[in-house]
Amino acid sequence: MPEDHFCPPDPKDSIYCISETEWINYQKEMFHYFSEQYKNSNPKIFVLFNPSGDLALQRWMLDSLPRFWIKLGPIADRYQLNREAERWDTRWIEDFKPLPSRGEMDLTDMGWFAEDSVGNMYWSQLWALHNGLDMHNQLVKDVQESRFHFAFEFFTNYAGYTSPEQSHGAWIALRDGLDAADTIRFPENIYGELRDGENKQRYVNIAKAFSAYGAIQSDTTAGKKTSWDALNDVGYKIHPGNYEMWIHQIEPQTSQGYWRQGPKEQVFGRFARGFGQINKMYFDIDDRFFLNNPLAGAYPIKIRVVYLDIGNGKWAIDYDALSGQKNIEVQKQNSGSWQQFITEITDAHFGNRLEKGADLILRNVDSEQDIFHMIEVTRESGSTSIEDIGDDYITFTLYQNYPNPFNPTTTIEFDLPKDEIVTLKVYALDGREVKTLIEKKLYRAGRHRISWDGTSNAGNKVGSGVYVYRIEAGKFKASKKMIFLK
């Protein structure tokens, strides 16, 4: 049979073989058929399709089918999978209308994973988030492994957010991808000919050039094939940069990549960056995170920086504040481990007014090198407090408002397990009543929604900031926080 034909492993009869074109056309026909069957279902049922990394098929699906779930198989398998850069059409991320997606990570019994199981699980979760994966199914034995729980918790904290406007946080995990297919960064006259990725010595040469920073090519026989036996730092057509959600590094090539740093029992050090050509690293928070306007001190922001605590020097974080550039210095303690610095700031402006249009800058303040894993920016997105709930109320739910932050209006939804007299009010953080949305009104069992336009009881527009909405229905009481931005 020709190489472009597909045959089932058993039986071997050639009548079951079809060409690649026939296989793609068959998938299109089936995908279209099932979309038509379920497009008017009630309740709504979305079909999940598996395009198996076929880029042309993905593009046809995005252009031709209504909203659907997609299986991102290779993305869910692991990070740094060779040829990952050409497997997926990322328009469901780039056009801000993400498709729901799932995939399973079921290859954790192989050598590459065992080489650094804790770090590999964590970085696989970061890669999944970077690609917009909503559901990352895990093996039971891995879910039960307590060392992986930090990775799962981080994934759960961000999975499902489809736009920065809705997210409670943004993050960037610093990473330098050594891509042997990049002949501009790695010229063939220095590192060896590419030969369509078949020159295995080229991978070794690139790793050797970065060995002082921790890079290793453990499986030198892999070449452009992904090694499932060992962990390689040089790949073929891999993602070249950081993993991120809504924080972007400006000119990352001016920083220095690091690999396999810090204690192995900590999850962070698989990749990292330090100061390179200059003593600064610049970062931009996606403008949509603040509804395309500067934050202008509307509410507090927490900044978390994970760094390798080696040496007794200092590093600083500069931020765009209301009064201009401000900085916070961090003193290292030479513990030899990864540490996190967390601070809350109340005067953040974040209007891209720092050097190179940055919102945040990591800055070296002495002669010591500093190595970083992550910057995370979070805001209070609301929490539910439930008081005096008996067994009769276990299905009562107050949902997070959407969108959040919002301007000009937002929607609040709640579920009632039975008919109740409902009161729903909005308060300022100091306890002052701002708006009565529902006042002792009878609501039937079921789901209900109500909108708030950001005005007070007097009809005036409220100021930017954090507000609390609180519901009372019988014995049930609950509250959540929401953010209004002007």
List keywords for this structure.
single chain; 486 residues; alpha+beta; Jelly Rolls; Immunoglobulin-like; 7-stranded antiparallel β-sheet; 5-stranded antiparallel β-sheet; 10 helices; globular
Describe the structure.
About 4% of the residues have low confidence. The protein is α+β, with helices and mostly antiparallel strands and 486 residues long. The chain folds into 3 domains: 156 residues, no CATH class; 141 residues, Jelly Rolls (Sandwich), CATH 2.60.120; 94 residues, Sandwich (Immunoglobulin-like), CATH 2.60.40. Helix 1 packs parallel to helix 2 and helix 6 runs parallel beside helix 8. The chain has 10 helices and 27 strands. The longest helix has 19 residues. The strands form 7 sheets. Strands 7, 10, 12, 13, 15, 18 and 20 form a 7-stranded antiparallel β-sheet that branches. Strands 11-14-19-16-17 form a 5-stranded antiparallel β-sheet, with no helix packed on it. A 4-stranded parallel β-sheet has the order 3-4-5-6. The chain is globular.
Walk me through the topology.
Blueprint: E1 5-6, E2 18-19, H1 20-38, E3 48-49, H2 55-64, E4 69-71, H3 73-77, H4 91-94, E5 101-105, H5 111-114, H6 117-130, E6 135-138, H7 140-143, H8 149-158, E7 169-173, E8 178-179, H9 188-191, H10 200-209, E9 234-235, E10 243-245, E11 247-250, E12 255-259, E13 271-275, E14 280-285, E15 301-308, E16 314-321, E17 324-331, E18 338-345, E19 360-364, E20 371-378, E21 397-398, E22 410-416, E23 420-428, E24 433-443, E25 446-452, E26 465-473, E27 476-484
Parallel strand pairs: 3-4, 4-5, 5-6, 8-9
Antiparallel strand pairs: 1-2, 7-10, 7-20, 11-14, 12-13, 13-20, 14-19, 15-18, 15-20, 16-17, 16-19, 21-22, 22-25, 23-24, 23-26, 26-27
